[in-house]
Design goal:
Layout: E1 6-9, E2 18-24, H1 28-35, E3 36-38, E4 48-56, E5 59-69, E6 80-86, H2 89-101, E7 105-106, H3 111-118, H4 124-135, H5 139-149, H6 152-176, H7 183-217, E8 219-224, H8 231-239, E9 257-263, E10 266-272, H9 282-297, E11 300-306, H10 313-321, E12 327-332, E13 347-349, H11 358-369, H12 385-406, H13 411-429, H14 435-443
Parallel strand pairs: 1-7, 8-10, 8-11, 11-12, 12-13
Antiparallel strand pairs: 1-2, 2-6, 3-4, 4-5, 5-6, 9-10
Helix pairs in contact: 4-5, 5-7, 6-7, 6-13, 7-12, 12-13
Length: 449
Amino acid sequence: MQKDTIAAISTALGESAISIVRMIGSDVFNIANTIFKGKDLASAKSHTIHYGKIYDNDTMVDEVLVSVFKAPKTFTRENMVEINCHGGVYAAKKILELLLTNGARIAEKGEFTERAFLNGRIDLTQAESIMDIIESRSEQSLTLAAKGVDGKIYDLITYLRSDVLDIVANIEVNIDYPEYDDVETLSDTVLVPRIQTLKTKTAEVLKQAQVGKVLKEGVKTAIIGRPNVGKSSVLNALLKEDKAIVTEIQGTTRDTVEGEINIGGVVLKLIDTAGIRDSQDIVERIGIDKAKTMIDEAELILYVVNNNEPLTQDDEKLLELTKNKPRIVIINKIDLENKINHTFDDSVQISALKKTNIEQLEKRIESMFLGGEVSLNQQTYLSNARQISKMRQVDNYLADALEAAHNHMPVDMIEIDLKSAWETLGEIIGQTKNTALIDELFSKFCLGK
C-alpha cells in the first residue's frame, strides 16, 4: 500500500460548470481538513458528499462539495477525497496549490490508476482499458473498452493460463510418477492434442484481435490516384464537408489533407494525397513523394480512377504499386460519359461530385473490415497493441511446443516453451511484473487519472 499522499486536477482545465481536484493517500483527511470549512472529513462516513468552503487562511477561495471515500472500498484501495469546485482555471489550481502546500505532492501522469494496479484493485488490462475509454471515438470502441474494464480480457487470459498450467502439471506429474513408458506415447496421447487445442484458441483470439484493433485505433486510409481523378472530391464526399480544395487544375492538392469519419463503427483516418505523376514542379514533387510514402504506411488504399478517361500508364503503375495492399478501386465521375478502357472485377462506381453511391462505398469499407461478424456482446476482443504482441509471442511458444511434441522431444524441452507461454500470458494481465513496462504504460495516461 502506498503511504504518501498525492493530488491532481482530474478534469480538463478551462471554463466549465465543475472542476474536480482528486487526492489519495494516508493523510488525505488531515490535509483536506486544513483548508475545508465544513464537516470533519475524517469522521465522515465513506461514500458521502459534504458541502463547505475552501479557505486560504482567512480568505475564502470557493464554495465546494467534497466527496469522501475510505479504504479499502475505493478506486485505489486508499483513502480518497474529491473536491468539486466551480469550473474554471484559477479555482481548481488554487485548491491544488493549497493541498500541495499542506503536505500532498503532485501526482505523476497515470499515478492514480497505477496505484490501483499496484494495490491489486485492477489488473493491467483493466488499466489499459481505462485509457481506451478516455480515447474512444465510437460506440463500438467504447463498448470494447468497457468490457476490458469489466475484467473480460482478464478472464480470457486467466482461462488460457489455466489451460497451459494444466499441461505443465501433467508433464511434471509424469516426470515424477511415470504413467507412460516412453515420450512418444505421452506426446501422441496427451501433449499433442492438448497443445493443439490450446493453439487453436490463441489463433482465434489473434484473429478476433484484428477486429478489435480496427474498432479501437481506426484504419489509416490513403486516397490514391493520378491528378484530377477526383480524390479530393471523394474525401469531401466521405467527410460530408468541403475539407479539400477541388478544382479542374491538375496538381491542386500538393500536400496531404486529412480527416476522420466513422463508418459503421470503423474510424477511417482519411488522407487525401497529391496526384501521382511525373512533375517538374518542386513543391508538387514533394507532395508526390509523401503520397508514395503514404501507400507504404496505409492500412487501406482507396484507389481512384476516372470513368471519363482511358487508363494511362500512370494508372497502370499505381495499380501495380498498390496490388498487395488492402484496396478498393473507386471508379469516379460516373455522371460523365464512360471512356474507361479497363474492367475491374471488384470496384465501386460513384460520382463524388453528385454524391452518387457514396453509401455503397461506405458499406463496402465496413464489410471489408468487419464482415458483419462483430458481436461485442458475445466476444471479447484484444485491441491493445501490447496485448496483441504478447499474444503473438504466446502463439509462437505454443507452435514450438507443438512441433517439439510431434518430434517426440524430451518432455522437459516441451515444458520450457509451455512455461514461456504461461509467463507471457501473465505479462498481458500484469501478473509477471516488468517495472520498466509499468512505468512506460502509465506515463501515457493524462495527469489526474
